[in-house]
Design a protein that fits this description.
The protein is mostly helical and about 100 residues long. It has one domain: Chorismate Mutase Domain, subunit A, CATH 1.20.59.10. Helix content is about 80%, strand content about 0%. It has 4 helices and no strands. The chain has helices spanning about 10-40, 45, 50-65, 70-99. It is elongated and about 55 Å long.
Amino acid sequence: MDIKKCNSLEEVRKEVDRIDAKLIDLISQRSHYIRQAASFKESVAEVKTEERIDFILTKVRHRAIELGVSPNMISELFEIMIDEMVETEIAELKNRNKF
């Protein structure tokens, strides 16, 4: 991972803003794939698979440790994201089953 050496606070903030925009784009992409996942599932139980959630949280914690980032912060962020996306997926599933 290459981190640019910044020469001012303004430059640091510009880089942080650039990364924030990328994070939002990536979260949006993830959300669109989660919506697609709903089309392959038949029940809410399939959406809320604890084994899959545990797998994801373990994987992101390990990656955070590898990169020197707080694994607690990363797992908390992912828990929030997963909870919200599970609700989105459930809504997609329910909407699909209305028709």
